Amino acid sequence: MQTLVVHKQKQTGWIRFHRPDVRNAVNLAMIGELESVIREWKNDRNLKAIVFLGDERAFVSGGDVSEFHQWTKKEEIFPVMRRMGALLEEIARLELVTVAAVEGFAVGGGCEIVVSCDFCLASPKAKFGMIQVNLGITTGWGGAGRLMRKIGRTRALDCLLTGRILSGEEAKEWGIVDALLPEDGFRSHVESYVEKLTKAPVSVIRAYKQVADKIEREREQGTYELEAEHCAVCWESDEHRLAVESFLNRTRAKKE
Ligand SMILES: CC[C@H](C(=O)O)C(=O)SCCNC(=O)CCNC(=O)[C@H](O)C(C)(C)COP(=O)(O)OP(=O)(O)OC[C@H]1O[C@@H](n2cnc3c(N)ncnc32)[C@H](O)[C@@H]1OP(=O)(O)O
């Protein structure tokens, strides 16, 4: 695999987002690789948990601005948004424990990946932000609906409308982070935490995830399709075009 480093350890699968040069930004290749891992592992009846992680600098920095933002029409970008939204819906509905382990930036779509997991474990230096608004767009992968369900409508709207960046501690206080773990030996702290979450038999884990999923389905459908639609419409705005140009100009200027 080019964009992910994956391995299984006992009954836990580990998926590391691995595009360090671009702070683990999600491109089409990563979406394809993540689809194939999730669709293979979801049928592993021995697996109890999946942990998603990045590196000390970034969990995931959102969609790949260089790749995604070459498309300017809503008809071009909607299928890409919907595809990743459907994948995060699949992850959210997995009948095993899902964990986002965050040490660095989880921004934009990276924050949407975080809230599609059952648990978020973070180091105090982690940073979270639904920064799509800074690009003049909305979430596109279902993250707005999941954030509202996780931290409540008012705080979620504050994060979505301001694009504020929260430290690990602030994100714990706001309810995005479920446990803060020491930066030193973060990975082994994550392993011990996951061990506690997965001492139950596979059948018990799958049963409780089915209960959680049923409640969510009865309460409301996932919002990823609506969000992908809104994101695609905003994609054509001048605000979005200008924000992307300024990001790409900054990147080019650094190279000169
Ligand atoms: C529905 C999802 C939605 C969408 O897909 O449109 C979104 O996710 S919108 C949000 C898209 N993401 C961003 O706008 C974040 C952009 N990145 C940053 O703000 C920073 O890179 C940050 C805060 C994540 C990390 O800052 P740091 O100072 O640690 O690193 P640099 O900014 O110097 O970046 C290093 C290197 O990585 C490239 N990079 C970072 N993020 C992205 C990205 N999302 N897409 C493409 N490339 C990215 C950055 O340009 C630098 O490249 P270099 O060639 O080394 O200059």
From TrEMBL:
User: What organism does this protein naturally occur in?
Assistant: Thermoactinomyces daqus
The record's principal subcellular location, in a coarse class, is: cytoplasm
The record's section on InterPro entries has: ClpP/crotonase-like_dom_sf, Enoyl-CoA_hyd/isom_CS, Enoyl-CoA_hydra/iso
What Gene3D superfamilies has UniProt attached to this entry? 2-enoyl-CoA Hydratase, Chain A, domain 1
Name of the protein in its database record = Ethylmalonyl-CoA decarboxylase
What family is this protein classified in?
Answer: Belongs to the enoyl-CoA hydratase/isomerase family.
The UniProt GO MF terms for this protein read:
isomerase activity; methyl/ethyl malonyl-CoA decarboxylase activity
* Free-text function comment from the UniProt entry: Decarboxylates ethylmalonyl-CoA, a potentially toxic metabolite, to form butyryl-CoA, suggesting it might be involved in metabolite proofreading. Acts preferentially on (S)-ethylmalonyl-CoA but also has some activity on the (R)-isomer. Also has methylmalonyl-CoA decarboxylase activity at lower level.
Traced from the root, the source organism's taxonomic lineage reads:
Bacteria, Bacillati, Bacillota, Bacilli, Bacillales
What's in the GO CC field? cytosol
Q: Which reaction does it catalyse?
A: (2S)-ethylmalonyl-CoA + H(+) = butanoyl-CoA + CO2; (S)-methylmalonyl-CoA + H(+) = propanoyl-CoA + CO2; (2R)-ethylmalonyl-CoA + H(+) = butanoyl-CoA + CO2
Keyword list (alphabetical) reads:
Cytoplasm, Isomerase, Lyase
